[in-house]
Amino acid sequence: MKIIRGAEFTEELLRRNDSNQTDLEFDRNVLSIIDQVRSEGDQAVLNFTERFDGVKLDNLIVTEEEINEAEQAVTDDFYRALRSAKERITTYHEAQKEQSWFLNPNEGIMLGQKVTPIDSVGLYVPGGKAAYPSTVLMNALPAKIAGVGRISMVTPPQRDGKINPYVLVAAKEAGVDRIYKVGGAQAIAALAYGTETIEKVVKITGPGNAYVARAKKWVFGDVAIDMIAGPSEICVVADAHTNPIYAAADLLSQAEHDERAAAVCITTSEAFAAELSKEVERQLAELDRKEIATQSIEQFGRIIIVDSLEEAFDIVNRLAPEHLELMIDQPMEHLAAIRNAGAIFLGQHSPEALGDYMAGPNHTLPTSGTAAFSSPLGVYDFMKKSSIIYYSENALAEVADDVITLADAEQLTGHANSIKVRKAGY
Fold this sequence. Notes:
46% of the residues lie in helices and 17% in strands. It is globular and about 85 Å long. Keywords: Amino-acid biosynthesis, Histidine biosynthesis, Metal-binding, NAD, Oxidoreductase, Zinc.
C-alpha cells in the first residue's frame, strides 16, 4: 500500500467523485430503459430482466409460497443473528422519530409543524450473485418506524428466477409489504412511474450499481430519492498506538466492495505507516475477493503521513468520508474536530463491519464527499413536515400594514390585496 506525505492525494480522490464527469452514452442507455418502462410497463420490465439477468419470468411478484420456501432454507443461526440486528437497528432508529409541535408566540397566534409519514416507498436491494439482507433491514425498518403506508421492495432475481432466501426472510422480518423480482434501471423506472403490476411509490431508497444510481438521478423530481451512492469509502485515523492488524483488516473490508472503493489511512507515525503497509499486503493475499481489493488498494488506497492530528482532521473534513474510524488514543476528546463524515467509529474495537450489520445506526451513508452536506438514512427520510399557521382577526390586524408594505415592495399587488380586503372589514 502506497505511503505518501501530505494531502496531495486528497484532491485526486475528490476528483474521482466529480459529478460533472458524465458519460453521455451511458446516460442515453439509462434514459432509454426508463422511457421503455414508462411506455411499455410490465413487458419492458420482463424483457430487460431476461436481457440483463438472463431470467425469463412469468410473474414479477414474489409469492407467499416462495417466502415460505425461503424460511425453510435459512439456518437457525441466521434467524438469531437477523433478529438480534433487527432489535438493535429498531432501538436506535426509534429515537429518531420526530413529533408534531405547536407554539403560541402571541395571543391569537398558533404556529407549528405537523410531521406525517410518506404514503409509500420503494426499497432497492442489490441481488443476483450476492445477498444483502442487512440492506433490507437498514431500509425497511426506518420506514416501518416512520409509519410509511406501503413498503415495496425490488431486487434482481437469481438465475433460477428466485430471490435469495436470506433477502426474502429479512424482508418478511422487517415488514415489507410487496416484493418484486426486478433490478437495475428498469426497477427504478417501474417504482417511479408504475406498471400494470408494480405500484408507483413516492420515494425510492437503497444502493445499487451505476445503472441504478444514474436512474435514481434521472427520476428524481418525479419521485424523491435518498441519495445517489458512489463507491464505498473508509478513512482510518491512526497514531503510534494503533494496532496495524486491525487497521489493515478494516481498510480491506471496504476495498473488497468495489475496484473504485477508497481505503485511506492518515497517521502521525512513520513506523506505524510502514507496519500497516506490510500488513495490508499480507492480509490482501488471503482475501477471497483479493482481485477486486487489489485494484482498489492500488488505485485509491493510500497511507498519508501527517505532522499532527489537527492536520489529519483537516484532511478528513475535506474528504468527508462515508466511514471514519478514529483508532487513536482518547478518540472522544477529538470528536468535536470532525465536521464531515457519514459514520464515525471510535476506538480500536468499533470496526466498520460492526456498523454494517449489528450496532444499530444505519449503514446507508453519504459517499463521494456528500457527507459534507447530507446524513445517513434514517426515520426522518420517510417523514415529511407541514407548517401550521393560525392567526385570529386581531392578530392579523396587528401585522396587516407590514405585510402590505412588503408585498408592495415586491410589486405583488394581489398579495397586498388579500390583506387589504380583510383590513377593510376590521
